[in-house]
Structure formats: structure tokens, C-alpha cells
Amino acid sequence: MNRIEKSEEKFKQLFGEGVPGTHATDPDFQDILSYFIFGEVFYQGNLDDKQRELITLVVLPTNQTLPQLKAYVSAALNVGLTPVEIKEAVYQCAPYIGFPKTLNAINEVNEVFKAKNIALPVESQKTVNEDNRFQKGLATQGEIFRDGIKKNVGECSIKSKAYAGISFCFLLRRFLYS
After folding, report:
1. Is there a contact between 5 and 38 (Cβ–Cβ < 8 Å)?
2. CB-CB contact of 57 with 73 (8 Å)
3. What is the residue-wise DSSP string for 93-131?
4. What does the pLDDT look like over 42-63, one tens digit per residue?
5. Going by C-beta distance under 8 Å and a sequence separation of 6 or more, which residues neighbour residue 14?
6. Tens digit of each residue's pLDDT (9 = 90 or more) over 94-118
């Protein structure tokens, strides 16, 4: 199968029947895009389609390419990702791109879910509460940073630990590896 046939097959798998909107106004550009992304990139390496879609679901919010995010949320569902997996992937963007950009992406995801009659909110994935979040966070960071975290956390006051909150991991990483 050549890259044109591969791109047509992959596009159909991800997005269903039909042609992209840009094909009507910019067919040459759409062919370049489709043949490269869906005819070459999707067949490179050993990632499966779910993994490729998860990566795409975090890159698009990072770039704030939200119209494309909506299309790829549908594609992610088409390759078998669950609504929870999609939401969790987007939530992971928050510490890196900021809460406002992540909220923009969440709004786009929710629009797709509503259009597909997917119940909102999705099932909660919380694993911590206000009483145990610091201890569980420290345990997780201990797995990542090993002895460095234990040594340096001992130097922080309880008040410092409380104020550090969400950025604690990033500040500590900078402290440990700068």
C-alpha cells in the first residue's frame, strides 16, 4: 500500500467518512498534510494508535490549536480511548501550559463529549484528598527523585510545604538538578 492509500485508510479510521473542510478550499495543502501525517508519520515507529492520539491530545492544547483538538478528541474515541483517558491527558497539561490554556482545551473536549452524548462530568479519578495530598505527593516524588527529595524536604518548614502546593515538585526538581 502506498502512502496515499495509507493516508486515506488512516484518515477514515480516525475521522470516519468524508473529507476535511480544507480540502474544498485548499486541496493541495490538505493532500500534503494528509499524505505526510496519515500516510507516513502514523506508520513510523512502534506506537499504537491510542498512544499517538494521547500525544496529539496534549500537543494541540499546548499549541492552542483548539479547532483541531475537537477533531482529534473524536479520533481518540474512534481508536478506543475512553473519555476518562482523554480528560486525564488534557488535565496533565495544566502544570506545563497553565490553567487558562488547559481550561480552553477542556471546554473543547466537553463540546465534543456533549455532541456525542457522553455524560459529564466523567468519573472522578482523584486519588488524594486535602488530608493526605502532601504525604502522597511526597511519596510519589520520592519514587522519582529518590534520596534527594527526602534530604531536601527535611529542610522545608511545614508552612513552606503547604504554600508550595502544585509547584512544589517543579521547584524541588530545579533545586535538586540545577
Report:
1. no
2. yes
3. THHHH-HHHHHHHHHHHHHHHHHTT--SSPPP-----TT
4. 899 999 999 999 999 999 999 9
5. 38, 49, 53, 75, 78, 79
6. 999 999 999 999 999 999 999 999 9
